[in-house]
Amino acid sequence: MPARRDSESVNHVAGRVPPIFVAVELDDYLDVSQTMLLTLSNRGRVSHINRAGCELLGREEADILGSSWFDTFVPASVRDRMRTLFRQSMAGDEEVGHFESPVLSRTRGERLVAWHAAPVRLADGMVAGMILSGLDITDREQNRKSRERLLKELGAVKFALDQSAIVATTDLDGVITAVNDKFCEISKYSREELLGRNHRIVNSGHHGADFFRNLWSTIAAGRIWNGEIRNRAKDGGIYWVHTTIVPFLDAQGQPYQYMAIHYEVTERKAAEARLRRQETLARLGQMSAMVAHEVKNPLAGISGALQVVGSRLAAESRDRKILDDIQDRIAALDRMLQDLLTFASPREPAPAPSALRAVIGEAAAAIRGDPAMSGIAVELRGDDPTLPLDREQMHIVFLNVLLNAAQAMGLRGDIEVDVGTAPGGCVVTVADRGSGIAPALREKIFQPFFSTRSRGAGLGLPTARRIVEAHGGSLTARPREGGGTVLTVTLPLREAVGAGA
């Protein structure tokens, strides 16, 4: 290893020193550069430094030259490591090259500098010192760390949002550009089916044109929109979401995309609808009960009078047939009034452990016992759970549901009834092959006095739903694949909560 010489002067630098140092005075070269440039002797003392270096260190050149670089300008936290690296380089054991290390500035505190270092050799190959060029990267590093911190925070916010909310972004035309997993889960669409499609893909048709016109005019003006929207999933199911739509604005304050953040409120909306329905039914029930009682008694009198008149007619009289037809009509009207009274005056369920298939079987037997239903077959299959039920009331439920299915098929065809258990309760599906129910009528069939048949009070399914809800369950309708309708009765494994629940 060649012996080292201490050189404190640039006049000793020659041989392997770059030609620029031979062609011009080193001081002039150092001062031209906008980068911090300095030379260290092989003992680590500053022999030259340019103006940029003086400005970075916050000192005059006279205060710097001759100073120990490591003792004066290197922070104590890295001083030993940097001095060891320097000594190894001076001994020819290690090439320093590129590295990052902090320096101490009198005016600006600790600054991070990116260095490039190379040993300076004399003509005979002896190591004279080291020349370094340094670039202050403190601000750049702080910006990088700030960006990393910001990205980490944004990632955490996104994670939290994805765990709790349904999120989608769209372009200015409402075309979906991104969705999270919860959006796919609630809409029943895959991400591939949603991306590139207009948000109308989940439009349920519930809201009118004015609703969406107000929504779009609000966000197009750069304002946030809040509201509740009823959407339709891929399988036809309805769900409600509380929605906040946030416009993302460019430098000119114009939207360039929208983010919609949804929270599902289907259960709350269903509870509100049940409450409104119960309030309406309570008022309707009072009026219906009064009308039914007022009509039922005169009907009984008319029926009795007709029996008296009929008893006076000869058996072969043509008028007897007319009286029999009137009696049939009075009986049908009496049954309708009885349905009205049942609907108008519900009683609290009296649940007791009951085998569900037995309850459904009794309703199916009643269907089979009606001569008008001779073309109907009921296929009952699945589990047989025991639930806390009011047997008499649930008989009414399944009788009405089966009658609805039979009438939908014109009193001819097979009704498939499946009983399945689920966590906390069970699900009964009643499927027919009728003409189906139009989407616009799917909820109306549960409204009192709504009927698609020329005869009928339209109280069968509303009565059934009211009883099921009093048991803490639900009754819904959906289209059947291949045609027809599926009515689904869901019942929990808990006590009934009462007719007013």
What integer value in Å does the Rg equal?
44 Å
β-sheet strand percentage: 25-35%
Measured as a percent range, the helix fraction is: 40-55%
Strand order of the largest sheet: 2-1-5-4-3
Mean pLDDT: 83
The structural class is: alpha+beta
* Low-pLDDT residue spans: 1-24, 495-501
The biggest sheet, with number of strands, parallel, antiparallel or mixed sense and barrel status, is: 5 strands, antiparallel
What is the molecular shape?
Answer: rod-shaped
- Number of contiguous helices: 15
Cα-to-Cα separation, first versus last residue: 96 Å
The tally of strands reads 17
Describe it.
This protein is rod-shaped. The model is unreliable at 1-24 and 495-501 (pLDDT under 50). Helix content is 42%, strand content 25%. With 501 residues, the chain is an alpha+beta fold.
What is the compact description of this entry?
The chain has helices at 19-23, 26-32, 51-57, 61-64, 69-73, 76-90, 138-164, 181-187, 191-194, 209-220, 266-311, 318-344, 356-368, 391-408, 460-470; strands at residues 36-41, 46-49, 97-105, 109-121, 127-136, 166-170, 176-179, 225-232, 238-249, 255-264, 352-355, 376-382, 386-389, 413-422, 425-431, 474-479, 485-492.
